[in-house]
Amino acid sequence: MTKFILVLASSVFVLATPIVSVTANAESFPPIENQTVIAECGECHMVFFAEMLPRKSWLRILNSLGNHYGEDASIDSGPLKEIITFHTSRASDVLNIRGAIKWREGLNKGEAPERITTAPRFIRKHADNDFAQMWTKFKVASKADCLACHKGATRGQFDDD
Which domain holds residue 151? Predict the structure, then answer.
């Protein structure tokens, strides 16, 4: 019986190893569990991962919610402070996790893209000639419509190179 359990456990390990490797190589971010961020930001769009932009970008974006890409997205000061703290503590130039490191690649020191879609990582990942065809195929509403192509986007799972 002990030998059977050992063989079974070894088989599970061998079968699970490729899955773990694929997940470890994927670009991913820790899940967003802050309920204020989820409620306030997710009311209008997908909750974007703080690791995609540097601290300076988040400060600019979050301190100008009165004109948030042409919309008034103003929120009360209490939740705003919490959202700013959340984003600036997990920004790409603050954390040293794989996803954050990849999103700060290509940025000059102090550079602060105005939006995720103007960050060097986004531009490089979406520069493929087939990108325009994919927009049509997946009915992408805008560059910010990550879920159209990245089904795991809300869980922080994106394809990687």
Answer: 2-158
